[in-house]
Amino acid sequence: MKKFLPWIIVAVVIIGLYGWASGIYNKAVTLDQDVKESWGNVNTAYQKRNDLIPNLVSTVKGYATHEKSTLTAVIEARAKATSVTIDPTNVTPEQLAAYNSAQSGVSSSLSKLLVSVEQYPDLKANQNFIDLQRELTSMENQILTARTRFNEAVKPYNNNINTFPRNILAGMYGLKEKPYFEASTGADKPVEVKF
Questions:
Q1: Residue 157 near residue 178, CB atoms below 8 Å
Q2: Cα(49)–Cα(189) distance, integer angstroms
Q3: How large a percentage of the chain has pLDDT more than 90?
């Protein structure tokens, strides 16, 4: 029995190290999947908003013939926003900033459109327009929730791969920190609304 004791100890140590390393990796994979799911929810919320925009533009177009430039800006912002895509497995802060910027362009042009609508009392009273406006407000809240949940999913992933000794294995596995959604540039300043 003494003859096999060193081999048993080595086997136990190897099995223990394997279990520890695979546990760290499996936890990182699970958390990464949570981040991907959250990112999918963000994209779903933005897509739903982008799907509402043509209906809003069509409704406004019938009333606001003088607002062609504003309508064009909304359509162009939507096209730009839908052209920016991100792979959540390799997301970088720069990619997330570009995505955020494109989506902010949509929000900005929608705000201008809704402000210009103030000049059309018949449109403001139109039930379709009122419903679309409510739906867009609801979508903006859903987008905020989805972005918040994305950040909440990123935090445990980043904590998991950045704490010692997990950071050593994470580096060996090629796992990288994921960026958070941040506020758009200028979001700290109050919005000026002109009628």
A1: yes
A2: 24
A3: 5
Can you read off the two tokens belonging to residue 183?
A: 């506020």
Q: Of 73-77, 148-152, 153-157, which range is least confident?
A: 73-77
CATH class for domain 5-173?
A: mainly alpha
Give the H/E segment covering residue 173: helix 166-173
Hunting for tokens 């409704």 — which residue is that?
59
User: How far, in Å, CA of 99 to CA of 105, rounded?
Assistant: 10
8 A C-beta contact, residue 134 and residue 125: no
List the chain domain ranges.
Answer: 5-173
Answer whether 179's CB lies under 8 Å from 154's CB. yes
Composition of the chain by helix, strand, coil, percent to 5: 75, 0, 25
pLDDT at 156: 92
Residue 119: closest CA among 161, 67, 81, 76: 67
